[in-house]
Structures are given as C-alpha cells and as structure tokens.
Amino acid sequence: MSALTSPSFKRLVQALKTCKKTISVVEQCCGGTINASIMAQPGTSSVYYGGSVVYNTKKGKGLLLNSSELHKSLTNPNLKNDSREEYIQSKLDWTAKTSVAFCKSLGTDFAIAEGGAAGPTFRPKGMDVGFAVLTIAGKDGSNDVVKVLKQKVVHSESNDREKNMRMFADASAELLTELLNGENSEDEAIIDKTHHKLPLQDKEHIVLDRATHLRTNPEKLAKLEPKAMYVLTKANDILFRSPSELALLSNDEVSHLKNGANEMTFLGRLSDEHATAIFGIDIKASEDNATVSFEGCSFLNTRTSAPLLPPLENELALHMMAYANWQRRSRHCSSCGAPLTLIHAGTAQECSSCNAMSWPRQDPSMIASITSRCGERILLARSKRHPPKMHTVLAGFVEAGETFEAAVARETWEETGIRIDEGSVKYIGSQPWPFPQSCMIAFSATADDSQPLNIDENELVDAMWFDKKDVLAATKVEGPVMQHDVAKAALEADPSLPLLVPPKRVIARTLIDTWLGTH
In this predicted structure, what is the pLDDT of residue 414? Predict the structure, then answer.
C-alpha cells in the first residue's frame, strides 16, 4: 500500500463505494494528508470530488469558498483567555460551519472539515501536544437538510507534526466509516455518541441546576435517562476524556453498568437549550467491573486531577464524588444501626427499621494563608503526603464549638508555633473537598514573621516563610503538580525552583494568587 494512504482509507473508500456516496474534504492542520490518502486509493474518482487545504490561514479566504464568514471564524476566533479549552472550542465551531458550507456548495453527500494543531509549536497557553477537531456534515436522511452529523476531538500525546497529521487523518477516515456503516444498516445518519461534550455555544455560561424537585419523581427521572449524560466514578478515581476534560458518556455506553450493583445518582440538569440531565454512576469493586474501560478515556485520581477541569466539569466531578463517598461510608442508621436504603435518586437514605432519614454532610475545615505584616512573605508548609518541594497553605478541621477564626489561630499555632495577629482573619472563599466529606473555608491572616518556627513533625515535614519572587516562579509550573510524577518532572526541568505550589482552581492556590495579586 502507498505510503500516502493507510488501511483506514481503504475501508473508507470501500464504504463510500458500497453506499454510493460522495465526499469533499477541508483540512487545516493535516496539510493535505486526508485528501492525499483518499486520492491514493484506486478508483476514488466516483466518490471523491476534491478538497481544500487551508494551511496559511491568513491567505486562505479563497480556499474557503471565498467566504468572509468562514475565513474570519478561522483567523479571528473570540478567545478571551487564549486558553487550550477556548482554542479547541473555536475549532469545534469553525469545522461545524465549514463542513456544512462545503457539503452544500459542492453538492456531495458528506464533507469532512478538520481543524486543530499538529505541532511542534502551539499558539494557546498551556498547550504542548497536538489535537484535531473532526467534523462530518451531510444530508439528514429525513429531509435532505445539510447539517453536522458527527463531531469528535482527537487528542495526541505528542507534538510530532508528521505523526499527528497521520493520526488525525486516519481518525477522520474511521469516523466517516463508522457513520457510513451505520447508515448502510439503518438507512439514516447517526450522530456520534462516543463521548458527549458540553454544548458548543456559550459553554462558559452553562451552569448546573441541581433540580432538587425531581429527586422524588422517579417516573420523570426515568424519562430523562435516555438522553442524559453520565459521570463515572470508581474508588477514588473519576473518568476523564483527557487530563483537562471530564468524560460525559451516553446512556447507550453505560447501559451495561445500570445493573443494580452500581449506585446511580441524579446530579441535576444543565442550563443548556436541552436542559440536559446529568447522572453519576459509582462503579463498585467486583469481578464483573474489574475490566471496565472506555475507548479514549481513563480513570484518574479525583483529588489531584479534578482541579484541572473547567469550572462546570470540576463541579460535576466533586458533586458526584461527594455522593459516592457518602454512599459508600454511610451504610447503617446512626440511631438504631439497621441498614440504610438509598432513596430520592441516590441523594438521601432511609433506615430500614426506624425510617429515620439521613443526607450527605460536609465537615467544615479551615484553610488559611498566613502572611507577614509587610505583605512580602507567606508561610507555606509541606506535609508527608506531598511531593518534594510541594508547599501549600495551612489547613485543618474546625473542632466542635469552635469559630472559624479561632480554628485558624489554633491550627497555625499547633502546626508551626506562629501566633497570628488578633483580628486579622478575613474570609476569602470556599470549595467543596469530598475527600471524604470536607468543605474548605478559606481565610487570610497576618503574623509577625520574626517569630521562631516550631513545627509539629506529626503533621508537617517542614514549614517556612517564602518571598513573592520565589512563589511567583512556582506558579508558572502547570499541570497536576500534586502528583508525584508530575512534580518530579517539573523539578527535573528546572532544578532551581525553590518550591512548588498547588495548581490553579484549588482554593489553596486561590489564596496564594490572592496574596500575589494575580487572582
């Protein structure tokens, strides 16, 4: 077989011929690999009309049907934060518009539009490996209206341009082949249900409505399940699509898990146009579940990986993990000791003997940034579970009958021997921390940094005062640095780093960034 093509394209061309369908292609980062791979297959003139490669995007208007709208969508996406997530979203939007436009203009049955970044250099912040968005547009079998039929984000693990171009191209062939095979057997276009993504438009404005009124309506919830999205937990892990994307699965994909052995919980509905219902499934440890896996996804530690998710997905992850931990730990009535039964879609429990009701609880914990009176130094500590050089702010449980302010003063004194300034405690924010059932209440306070440190070695490995320059340098390190392997790699890349600090989106980092003035 020619090096220009691959087995994936052999199968695609065969499927196109069998179904008597035609195709056109628009590429952005694959550089013509998709088009060339189709043309290299024998006898493709009957199914392939041609394509376009928009490599120099600024000069590519003529290659986009001379459409100002398509060209502007490609070259001037509205990126508020210039982040990886926004950049991928812009490619989702652009490929959707472009595939539909080419399908209509060229009169083909299908059009593939590809957009992404193959490497080795990348534009957005925080991006160091390649990705491609693949979108297929075609005619709706019911009314011949051209629309998006399939859309998928393919993530690479490298920045090797040549390897990524080949991988993305093959993925496009496989995506359309799946659609054709489905169409051939059912005579209708099939929307991709491999991994649900949050709605494309106004994603940042979508919020979770916990819809508590539905928890006691099992008939209504049953009707929502077929079109719902599902979050999966297993032990301390949760299913991720990528290190920065939560896996949201379709009902079809999780149907084999809805067997009575795994607990299912109603989490709420999104504020998108479909009011999409969200359920969580906690996969129990069993022989049947030992090999549960989903293509392109992996179970990652919730504590260290959830902070890397966008706010809504982070909320979904912590929301589900809180229920899962509560359901596992609370099995008997606190009044009489009889077994509990889950009710209200997994959000409450009823005693099988005395009928007492119980709900999840959160234990309040304080977390505080202790800074010098001059504001130039911060007290950070490292516990035994942290990677080398990982330092963070002080934290501890609030005791019975204790105020939050008193807890800040007590924990600081007990762990470091530092007396905070009276009246200096100020509230900053809060964050659920269901490991297993805490809620972190964040404060700032000041202290005299000339006091001698007296470290509680049962709680901490060390604690010390750091100045802003050193802490600011540590904030430049990205990724899940609470994980030992990530921390090790960061220190190997820059041995001069005096410390590491928690990643963004955890309340400890918010306290540090607030002190630095970067929050």
Answer: 97
